[in-house]
Write a structure and sequence with these properties.
It is built from three helices and seven strands; from the N terminus they run βββααβββαβ. With 86 residues, the protein is α+β, with helices and mostly antiparallel strands. The chain has a single domain, classed as Uncharacterised protein PF10387, DUF2442 (NE0471 N-terminal domain-like, 2-Layer Sandwich). It is elongated. The protein starts with 11 loop residues before the first strand and ends with a strand.
Length: 86
């Protein structure tokens, strides 16, 4: 019986901000999500400003220049906010 190892890649592939939460899709297919209330500046920003993000930190973070907000994958993973994408 062959065993296949899961190759983890914690770099960000995509970012989505809804009215309730922040969602980061990682390159390995995991979805990291956290309540938007954890990020007061992001929560207070307009939807248009929330959409103006850029991947930073060699793929391990996301930055919103208009909001001056930076969020890293490592902290969200430590918080246990991960689930697999279907």
């Amino acid at each position: 019986m062959a065993i296949s190892a899961v190759k983890l890649d914690e770099r960000i592939a995509d970012v989505r901000v809804t009215a309730e939460r922040l969602e980061l899709t990682l390159r390995d297919g995991r979805l990291v999500a956290a309540p938007l209330e954890w990020f007061p500046r992001l929560a207070a920003a307009s939807a248009a400003k929330r959409e103006q993000w850029e991947i930073s930190g060699a793929g391990f973070g996301v930055h919103w220049p208009e909001i001056d907000e930076d969020i890293g994958v490592a902290g969200l993973l430590r918080a246990g906010a991960t689930k697999h994408q279907p």
